[in-house]
Amino acid sequence: MIVGIPKEIKNNEYRVSLTPAGAMELVRRGHTVYIQSGAGVDSGFADKEYQAVGAKLLPSIEEVYATAEMIIKVKEPIAPEYGLVRSGQLLFTYFHFASSEALTQAMIASGAVCCAYETVERSDRSLPLLIPMSEVAGRMAAQEGRYFLEKPRGGKGILLGGVPGVKPAKVFVIGAGVVGTAAARTAAGTGADVTICDVSLRRLTYLADVMPRNVKTLMSSEYNIREELKHADLVVGSVLIPGAKAPKLVTRDMLKLMEPGTVMVDVAIDQGGCFETSRPTTHEDPVYYVDGILHYCVANIPGAVPYTSTLALTNATLPYALQLADKGWRRACAENEELRLGLNIVEGKVVYRSVAEAWGLPYEPLQS
Q: Which residues contact 262 (CB under 8 A, 6 or more apart)?
């Protein structure tokens, strides 16, 4: 198969979808890998490293799309790329269709096959291609929240971990999945007073056993969320329903419960956000205020640490990319239920129910 690796063009997106080691594995299996010149530079991988393992360089994103049968990316195509996607071409990347009707309609019109990292799902309901970036995003949510709590950055002027004789900041994490757990653990590591909530008592019981003593667990409910917001200095939203829009668990009227300068980090923004007042931001312009509350809603948080993120992402995606390249998408998805669940849009049809429901489109399940 001819595999193409374009340079990411989303605002301040520095990751690349494949390391030289990943390219080597594809080449070893007889596949042809074309990478756009400079695509890996910001992640710490020079063109010559890809050439050394047998990958070939192309000078432009247009040529990569025009040449490849399968495109492997990090983030969803953005408007300048829509016209480059060809009918029947396989795209393997994060899509998050439920957060963008324009993207959904563009991919339907393209006739391409869209296999989304975020809905590849194991039998235990875990999301193997979302986990590594969720680990990064969760850690960074606490890191960025700590930064923006500083007074010169617009926050309350509170040190997350406090000092002897001064109480630490209160951190409230909504959602105890991979992102929330990573955020809570990172914040706790600085000495913060952390509360994490979820609707799963089983998950909370597990976290109560493994988390540091300065992490408290709480059953998620509107009442409990409202009570915690009254005292929180940093709020991390980390709720996920695979493939669907995130529920709005913090509504605008709840902002009045918080003190001015409180920081809210919405890691669920890729799926529409779990705060009613969230809107996507970029690393270039990451924050804004609503009613005195600072919102951080960057839609590609792991893009700020591209070396770590690219390695972690390739570790997870490569086994699936090899299956798609070796067998073609039809056979690979027929033989691997995890990959089949990754299919969201196939040749003009929406084959993933949550995407169809998000935009009121016909759902046409893939025929086996």
A: 155, 156, 232, 233, 234, 235, 293, 294
**Which residues on neighbouring strands pair with residue 343, listed in sequence order?**
115
Which amino acid is it at 198?
A: D
CB 57 within 8 A of CB 318: no
Candidate list 193, 198, 266, 270, residue with the active-site label: 270
Average confidence score pLDDT of the chain: 97
In the three-class reduction of DSSP (H, G, I as helix; E, B as strand; rest coil), residue 185 is classed as helix
The answer to whether 283 is a known catalytic residue is no
Q: Give the C-alpha separation, 305 to 141, whole Å.
A: 13
The strand pair at 193-198 and 32-36 is best described as: unpaired
Of the candidates 96, 73, 86, 76, the one whose C-alpha atom is nearest the C-alpha of residue 7 is 73
Selected catalytic residue, list 96, 193, 198, 233: 96
Neighbours of 336 (CB within 10 A): 17
326 is catalytic: no
The DSSP symbol for 51 reads: H
Q: What radius of gyration, in Å, describes the C-alpha atoms of the chain?
A: 21
CA–CA dist 265, 276 (Å, integer)? 12
Element (H, E) at 17: none
61 CA to centre of own chain: 23
CB of 157 closer than 8 Å to CB of 241 = no
Q: Give tens-digit pLDDT for 174-210.
A: 999 999 999 999 999 999 999 999 999 999 999 999 9
Dihedral over alpha carbons 86, 79, 286, 271 (to 10 degrees): -60
